[in-house]
Write a structure and sequence with these properties.
Blueprint: H1 7-11, H2 13-17, H3 33-47, H4 49-55, H5 60-81, H6 86-105, H7 111-123, H8 128-139, H9 149-159, H10 161-170, H11 176-196, H12 198-203, H13 211-217, H14 221-225, H15 231-251, H16 260-282, H17 296-314, H18 323-329
Helix pairs in contact: 3-4, 3-5, 3-7, 5-6, 5-7, 5-8, 5-10, 6-7, 6-8, 8-9, 8-10, 9-11, 10-11, 11-15, 11-16, 15-16, 16-17
């Protein structure tokens, strides 16, 4: 089945926009840059509660650019996932792609792309880093099962890995070595979300667990439909959790290859993903009908750890080093 929208699908796009927040629609005229920036900030800080927490740890000079990128990713995801009709979603994604193309030639109308154009110019971000995400969202409209784990990894190349590349670009890194390490972490985060949301995804008609693994462990699709956490299913989930942990481990060296500010953010997100895996493990891998979640105290502990690390970094203090030790290094400043 083609992933390109037909004329009839394009004709239905107008009604599809009406099923999304009215602010998502492409306006007839482009807003000013100031208005576009505010649009992205508002979307980033109100649509997703954790984004506001994440921005605490971003250098001030990068916050607007992260808001611009987040706004693009958020609306792209919603176009693919919140319309409820594959043909109409494809039509909207095609319109969104056209706006991305316009962004790169200097003629966008949507506030996201008006703001994003500034980010693209400042950080020299290739267009494919944005359009690759749209490949995954188009694929979601037609592909609902994955035969092998390699097929799942192939999907992650488009659904998750470009986000890591965008973060690296904003922080001044564009080399292949760091991108490959980032891919491991982003893939691990995507896998953690898949294993957390087996029931949620099945309700949307999707199974991200490889079909080869269902067969290997003796798990049927009916088990998923009926929320049957059989011993076979739990054994399969244990296997998948360990596999995700291996991907997190492969990405960990990136933390030592970036500046201190970004390293703290990367560690926060990596630890958050690993906490999801621990939450699944704590409930005996029985995720069907019971979505595992990180407890609020644990979330606060992760944020507090990141905040302290950021504070120490701003003062030039390394982990495990007491303030007095730093003063001695600087020449014996007085207490």
């Amino acid at each position: 089945m083609s992933l390109i929208a037909t004329d009839s699908q394009l004709a239905s796009a107008a009604s599809a926009w009406s099923r999304l927040p009215s602010a998502y629609a492409i306006p007839p005229h482009a807003p000013s840059l100031v208005e576009a920036r505010e649009y992205c900030r508002r979307l980033a800080t109100t649509h997703y509660e954790n984004f506001s927490v994440a921005t605490w740890f971003l250098p001030r000079r990068l916050r607007q650019h992260f808001c611009n990128v987040y706004a693009y990713c958020r609306i792209s995801d919603d176009l693919g996932d919140e319309v409820g009709n594959a043909g109409e979603a494809l039509a909207l994604l095609d319109e969104w792609q056209a706006e991305l193309d316009a962004c790169y030639v200097g003629a966008p109308r949507h506030p996201v792309f008006v703001a994003l154009a500034e980010t693209v110019r400042q950080f020299s971000i290739p267009k494919h880093e944005f359009s690759d995400l749209l490949i995954a969202f188009r694929q979601d409209q037609t592909v609902t099962r994955f035969a092998t784990f390699d097929d799942v990894l192939g999907y992650c190349c488009y659904s998750a890995n470009p986000v890591g590349h965008l973060v690296l670009y904003l922080c001044g890194y564009n080399d292949a070595e760091r991108q490959q390490l980032s891919d491991c972490t982003c893939t691990a985060l995507q896998l953690a979300n898949f294993w957390q949301d087996v029931t949620v995804d099945y309700a949307k008609g999707r199974i991200y667990l490889p079909l080869e693994d269902l067969r290997r462990f003796g798990v049927s699709e009916e088990d998923l439909a009926q929320n049957r956490n059989t011993p076979e299913f739990c054994a399969m989930m244990k296997f998948e959790i360990e596999r995700a942990r291996q991907w997190f481990a492969r990405g960990l060296p990136l933390i030592a290859r970036v500046d201190r500010e970004l390293a703290i953010d990367l560690e926060l997100f990596s630890r958050g993903g690993q906490e999801i895996l621990k939450a699944i493990e704590r409930q005996g891998f029985a995720v069907l009908g019971r979505r595992p979640a990180i407890s609020q105290p644990r979330k606060l502990a992760l944020v507090a750890r990141a905040a302290l690390s950021k504070l120490f970094a701003s003062r030039g203090i390394h982990r495990g080093q007491r303030p007095g030790e730093l003063r001695r290094e600087r020449g014996g400043e007085q207490e």
